[in-house]
Design goal:
Length: 197
C-alpha cells in the first residue's frame, strides 16, 4: 500500500529478458536501504525487490504486468518514480494507492503556466466511470487531482516541487503513463454492478 507521494527517482541501468518476463536493475538513493522481498512502487507499479547491490536493486515484471502497464517500453537511462510502502504510524499525505495499475494513458497536451504545469491525458473510455472532477488519481504512482474531466480525458495541475522531484517533467505530448484509479471508486462501482442481491 502506498500514498502516491514520491520518495525518490531512480534510473534504469539495465534490462534483461527472462522468458516472457523483464528484469530491471534500478539505481537510486533509496536502493541501499531496501531489503529483498519488499514492495516498492516503480512508476506506480508495485514490484518486489529481488536483490540489492550497493546503490541498485533488481525487480521483475511478469507478462500480466507488462500487458497492463508501460514497463515494456522502458529503456536504459530513463528515470522512474519510486515510493516504498507506507508506514501505518504516519499521515496519509496523498491517497490510498495499491500499486496495481489499471491502464495506461497518453499525454495529449502539456502547458506551462508561469510557475505551474498542466497535463491533459487521454485514457480508455471503459474507465470513464472511475474518474471524477476533483477526484484522486495516480499518474506514474504520483497522487494527483483530476479536473476538466471528460469521457476519456482529464487534466492535472503540477506544482514546482512535484515537477522537480518526480519524473512528470519528462512527460510531453505522446508520452504514455501508468494510471491507477481511486480504490474507493472501484469498490463503489463493484457494489453497483452487483446490485442489491
Amino acid at each position: 500500500m502506498f500514498t502516491g507521494i514520491i520518495e525518490s527517482t531512480g534510473r534504469v541501468v539495465s534490462i534483461s529478458e527472462n522468458g516472457s518476463n523483464l528484469s530491471f536493475r534500478i539505481e537510486s538513493p533509496i536502493s541501499k536501504e531496501l531489503k529483498v522481498d519488499q514492495s516498492v512502487s516503480h512508476n506506480g507499479v508495485c514490484l518486489t525487490v529481488e536483490s540489492t547491490d550497493g546503490n541498485a536493486h533488481v525487480v521483475t515484471a511478469i507478462e500480466e504486468t507488462l500487458r497492463k502497464t508501460d514497463l515494456g517500453s522502458w529503456t536504459e537511462g530513463m528515470d522512474i518514480n519510486l515510493e516504498r510502502c507506507m508506514l501505518m504510524n504516519g499521515r496519509l499525505d496523498g491517497h490510498i494507492v495499491q500499486g496495481h495499475v489499471d491502464t495506461t494513458a497518453t499525454c495529449t497536451e502539456r502547458r506551462e503556466l508561469n510557475g505551474s504545469w498542466e497535463f491533459t491525458f487521454q485514457f480508455p473510455r471503459e474507465f470513464a466511470h472511475l474518474v471524477i472532477e476533483k477526484g484522486s488519481i495516480a499518474v506514474n504512482g504520483t497522487s494527483l487531482t483530476c479536473f476538466n474531466v471528460g469521457k476519456d480525458s482529464f487534466t492535472i495541475a503540477v506544482i514546482p516541487y512535484t515537477y522537480e522531484h518526480t519524473n512528470i517533467h519528462q512527460v510531453k505530448k505522446g508520452t504514455q503513463v501508468n494510471i491507477e484509479f481511486d480504490i474507493l471508486g472501484k469498490y463503489v462501482q463493484r457494489r453497483l454492478e452487483l446490485g442489491t442481491s
